[in-house]
Amino acid sequence: MVKLGVNIDHVATLREARKTSYPDPIHAAVLAELGGADGITVHLREDRRHIKERDLKILKEIVKTRLNLEMAGTKEMVEIALQVKPHMVTLVPEKREELTTEGGLDVKNHFVNLKKICSKLKSGGIKVFIFVDPDEEQIEKCYELGVNGIEIHTGKYADALSEEERDREFLKIKKCVLFSLDRKLKTSAGHGLNYENVQKIAGIPGLYELNIGHSIVSRSIFVGMKEAVREMKNLIITAKETGL
Q1: Domain for residue 170, yes or no?
Q2: Which CATH number is 80's domain given?
Q3: What is the pLDDT, as a whole number, of residue 117?
Q4: What is the pLDDT of residues 225-243, one digit of tens each?
Q5: pLDDT tens, 79-128?
Q6: What are phi and psi of 118, to 5 degrees?
Q7: Peptide bond into 23 cis (omega under 30)
Q8: How many structural domains are present in the chain?
Q9: Contacts of 68 (CB under 8 A, 6+ apart)
Q10: Taking 60 as the threshold, does the pLDDT of residue 54 lie above it?
């Protein structure tokens, strides 16, 4: 069954809107796990716009499932990861001006540097995933890096303005999932997935995990974090294999 990783960044976004001590993403992580989350994801950004080092360190101590740290491949972030030692790291591209991650990492053009980063992280006992677009050439480069797995960017699928466009993006994702699995990479997916569009992706055979944040945090405002996670988990569990 496909696992559910819950990204709690936007609980911290709400906290930072008023620079208060609440709502606390630590509390959100506990409730998400009680609701059935298989893992907790946070993105520690260069500008610390939401998650802080304090959050990351406490989460490492209290998360009972698996802590996934999304981060840019910078010297600072590698040092933090090696100090905190999350269960896994997902390397992502990062720009200060973006509202959210806009696409996958360009592994092909940053291969040499990524090789060094992945080697350091794996030597520190941390599993390494890379966030990539549904592109076979980029996935092949991830395989050559020897990473533990990848997370396929589903943003274009989620943002599609027509059924035809959505179907086209879905087929691209499904093809790349199969391509990745052929190379024995654990294969996750995420970005922009919500309660309306998740089941089609969840029905792709062989997927390891879906990482979902904004839609769950948004839903939790009305029903609470535990229930919001339960609802998403149920959609994933009941998803049927999708074709086209």
Answers
A1: yes
A2: 3.20.20.70
A3: 97
A4: 999 999 999 999 999 876 5
A5: 999 999 999 999 999 755 545 556 899 999 999 999 999 999 999 999 99
A6: -60, -40
A7: yes
A8: 1
A9: 5, 39, 40, 41, 42, 86, 87, 88, 89, 90, 129, 211
A10: yes
**Half-sphere exposure in the Cβ direction for 34 (13 Å, CA):** 11
| Mean pLDDT of the residues in the chain | 95
- The one-letter amino acid code at 113 reads N
* Closest among 96, 100, 107 to 139, alpha carbons compared: 107
Short-list 203, 209, 231, CA closest to 219:
231
Contact 166, 157 (CB under 8 A): yes
For the four alpha carbons of 102, 107, 113 and 116, in that order, the dihedral sign comes to: positive
The boundaries of the domain holding residue 12 are 3-236
Q: Provide mean pLDDT across the span 184-199.
A: 98
**Residues tagged active-site:** 43, 70, 191
On whether residue 241 sits in a domain, the answer given is no
Question: Is 243 a domain residue?
Answer: no
Interatomic CA distance for residues 160 and 234, integer angstroms: 24
Name the one residue in this structure whose structure tokens are 């979902």.
212
Q: How many whole angstroms separate alpha carbon 26 and alpha carbon 23?
A: 9
Three-state SS annotation for 121-162? HHHCCCEEEEEECCCHHHHHHHHHHCCCEEEEECHHHHHCCC
- Distances in Å between the Cα of 70 and the Cα atoms of 154, 178, 223 are 16, 24, 27
Tokens of residue 174, six digits: 């499904």
Q: What is the pTM of this model?
A: 0.95
Residue that is written with structure tokens 């592109």 in the block: 135
pLDDT of residue 233: 98
